[in-house]
Amino acid sequence: MRVPFSIPVRVLAGSVLGVFAGVFAFAEAAHWRSSRRRLGDCESSGVRRPRSARWSSPGVRALTAAGRNETAADSDQIIIVLGYDNRGQRPNGINRFRVRAGLRSIDPAARSTLLIFCGGAVTGRTPEALILERFARDELGFTGRTVLEEQSTTTWENIANAIPIIDRELTPATTISIVSNSYHAEKARDHLWQMRPDLARRLVRGGDYRFGEQPLVKPIAAVRGLLALRALDRENAKHAAGR
Predict the structure, then answer these.
(1) Distance of alpha carbon 13 from its chain centroid, rounded?
(2) If we measure between CA atoms, which residue out of 106, 70, 97, 119 comes closest to residue 215?
(3) What gap in Å lies between CA 191 and CA 52, rounded to an integer?
(4) Using one digit for the tens of pLDDT, what is the confidence trace for 128-155?
(5) Does the pTM of the predicted model rise above 0.90?
(6) DSSP string spanning 33-66?
(7) Cα angle, residue 117 at apex, residues 103 and 102 outer, rounded to 5°
(8) Concatenated DSSP letters for 197-231?
């Protein structure tokens, strides 16, 4: 029996590769843009504030053309690493990625660096913050200063509970980075803008985005992140209208 028509294997393979390439490009572009929104030292479509609200300090220079933050030697870094549901004692893949992203956010030229690991015992018995710190120290060899925030169970609580720690450590030249996947970090930055705009003006990019990293996770995270941020923007608009 003859098939009425058939699709050449080469054409079919090309179509499949084209779909994968399109999904890859979408995910990369989405995460790249998200990593650059709702910051304190640059303007973008995601930052809803006048240009006069920029925070400038001797400790922070403008973003370079290469897309990396240049931090002067007299600056003080605070890096907030957000935990993710962890059932056991060992960090899952998402938490391992977030710790690595937090460590690569460290600027060796900074005068001081503090990592705040956030997350309570949400799905397991051990606080996520403790799991993150153990991985950083025991497996990645980190020896710097850390503070654990072990009570939070939501992203809002992550930021709310980190604020008192930030206030204790704050100097005129402090910069703040929030590290997670790009969309979750953007959501957390939005929460800081809602709670403490004075601190949010100090926000700089962390090391959560790298081209080609986590190619299977990024498309899913991008779709979920876009939906979550649209819902957050609608909620913010309702609150603003009700004031």
Answers:
(1) 35
(2) 97
(3) 21
(4) 999 999 999 999 999 999 999 999 999 9
(5) no
(6) HHTTSS-SSS--TT--S-GGG----TTBPPPPTT
(7) 20
(8) HHHHTTB---S---TTSSTTTHHHHHHHHHHHHHH
